[in-house]
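User: I'm preparing a small set of examples for a lab meeting where we compare how different chains pack in three dimensions. I only have the primary sequence for this one, and I'd like the structure in token form so I can line it up with the others. Please keep the answer compact; I'll paste it straight into my notes.
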Amino acid sequence: MTPVSAAQALRYVRRILEAYLRLPDTPGRARAQDHELAAQLHRRGVDEEIVQAQARLQQAEWNAAQIERQIADAEVRAPFDGTVGSVHVRAGELVSPGQPLVTLGDLATLRVETTDLDEVDVAQVAVDRVATVTFDALPDRVFTGRVTRVSPMAEPGTGGVHYTVVVELQEMDSTLRWGMTAFVDIEVDKE
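Assistant: Understood. Below is the structure token output for the 191-residue chain.
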């Protein structure tokens, strides 16, 4: 027996039905009505299969969208363009929310943070003051910068009262690296 598709079977049943319906009102016509009922039942079966297939397709599309969302949630994006200074995790390692993954820095602008500005000196420092910065690694170079932030509170655990002041460098040198030791001289008004 040759396999027949549902559409082919439906066409065959229709041809037979049309032939019976052309007959005069006879017992054959009653059989044709029975075949019409059978064809309707067959169409409903095909329609149900189509509806089920559409439901399976919708479920598969929903599952694919969920997987895409999970992949997007697992992707880590930097909040700004920068350079990775260090990586704190390895590929495949489980991480917790809020756990640092990398140290990222913007090398377009470097800044220096003081660690030893005492309470007498901090009172004379203000934002936008000019500062000169020298680095132990580059003793012959003097860099200029501007104060961009003066901490309103002393830093705890510094063995005295010390404040952090942030100075952004106005010029760059490719030999500068994060964490280099620097000496900062901030211009203050002489009174």
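A couple of notes for your slides: Strands lie at 83-87, 102-105, 111-113, 117-118, 130-135, 138-150, 162-163, 165-169, 182-186. Residues 63 and 69 are 10 Å apart (CA to CA).

User: Perfect, thanks.
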